[in-house]
Write a structure and sequence with these properties.
The structure is a homodimer.
Chain A lengths: L3 H17 L2 H5 L2 E8 L7 E2 L1 H13 L3 E13 L2 E12 L2 E13 L5 E7 L6 E2 L1
Parallel strand pairs in A: 1-6
Antiparallel strand pairs in A: 1-2, 3-4, 4-5, 5-6, 5-7
Chain lengths: 126, 126
């Protein structure tokens, strides 16, 4: 099992690759059969192809999306979490929301599941 | 099912009752058979009696514990999460750490499970 610091670094890379629009780097953090539930309660995206499609759909909606970690990452064994600000620039508008992500990892440190807590009610303009 | 705002209010009360040292109010937010996994990966405290014992053990270790929400609460359906600073005053020392809590609720809005992400490695002096 990777160390706590290594898993924290993976979660930081998760936000950096997403913000950079680097689909290959971002999808590469997941296992082949990983799941993404974003937001929590919505149907899961299962497997890397579906996760890549989720990434692309998100980036197609905005000119730029920037994830900024606000609290954490905190890692406990094979699970981790962090709170972030999600800033989306769309045309002349910039909207932000708070999201809290919870991930599980496999023994090699790849992400096996992601669950993202966020709510449309939390969206605000900057 | 309670509204998103009602569940957010419960999570705020959770931090307020804990900070006030009000065991009755805090334990009363949970269902009779609720579970507390604090930190994530440790054995669960199962049921209100065990949850009260966990509360009392935590408060016995410090003169004062103050929970301050930093991000969220964010509620998705019957689940919610928030990031907080936990400040513990013990004698002449004050230590803080970041914790991210994830809760599930029953249809009446009582907490059925709590999982708290925090790590000893995140403890710092103030």
């Amino acid at each position: 099992m990777p160390t706590e610091d290594e898993l924290r670094a993976t979660l930081i890379r998760y936000t950096e690759a997403f913000s950079a629009g680097d689909a290959d780097a971002w999808v590469g953090l997941f296992t082949e059969d990983a799941t993404v539930e974003d937001p929590v309660g919505s149907p899961k995206h299962v497997g890397r192809d579906a996760i890549r499609a989720f990434f692309e759909a998100g980036h197609a909606m905005a000119d730029k999306i920037t994830l900024t970690i606000k609290e954490g990452p905190v890692v406990c064994g094979s699970e981790g979490s962090f709170a972030m600000e999600v800033m989306s620039e769309m045309g002349g508008a910039t909207i932000v929301l708070t999201a809290i992500d919870v991930m599980t990892f496999d023994d090699a440190g790849a992400i096996t599941s992601q669950r993202a807590f966020w709510s449309p009610s939390g969206i605000r303009t900057l």
